[in-house]
Amino acid sequence: MSFGVMTYNIRMDTPADGPNQWHRRKDRVVNLIRQCAPGLLGVQEALSQQMSDLQSNLSDYGSYGVGRNDGRDSGEFSAVFYRHDRFELVDKGTFWLSETPDTPGSRGWDAALPRICSWIKLRDRLTGKELCYFNTHFDHEGNTARRESARFILTRIQQIAGSTIPSILTGDFNTGPQSDAYHTILSTDVLKDAKLLSESSHSGPQGTWSTFHVASGIGDRIDYIFITPSHFKVLKHAHLTESDNNYYPSDHLPVLAELAYNS
């Protein structure tokens, strides 16, 4: 009855990446996802064409996401994917991490860019349970924006899922475990860090920011999976280091957790 959850910043498609531009590495990203076969997947930084590539190559998955600039197809997506054979889509939505969360393209607090959280409500075909999955990408510059984004996401999770529906939050939070944003997420006991709850020892390096080059080493831990501990137990947790010719498929490591219901 367990299932995998993966969060993966796949790095936007930009010519500035040269030999690591998307068209040169997209097959490696797809193959890694297929190999891990998570039940749920959240991606960050995906542009519209990247979403098309993922959707056409991951036929076992349904997906939902919108571009952060206009709520349609402009700008980066924080999209969610779910396996058809395990989950049925019940509801979906996106809100902006700002003081006007239902205004497409809005920026919040001291954020440099518009930021979003996309979510889906699913029915688990094996258990009949409903669950909610939220996926986000916090601002890279605004300290206040990250903290307030964390606070607002907790509020929205309570509004959408309440206390009875199992919930998962994943994403690139652009900040480490010592930060205000991280501690804000953990402050209410609604969500806990899956890495800290894993029944098996964490696998892989401690950090998730990698650059494309294996030789550069691993930087901070900024990508996370959070779960409602009253509903889930964490069987395994890993930061994946698959590489090819000393290059990673993206400039972040994917994070993978295996979850099971508490009852």
Automatic annotation (TrEMBL):
Which segments constitute the Endonuclease/exonuclease/phosphatase domain? Answer: 6-252
Which GO MF terms does the UniProt record name? 3'-5'-RNA exonuclease activity
Top-rank taxon of the source lineage equals Eukaryota
Annotated Pfam families: Exo_endo_phos (PF03372)
Q: What is this protein called?
A: Endonuclease/exonuclease/phosphatase domain-containing protein
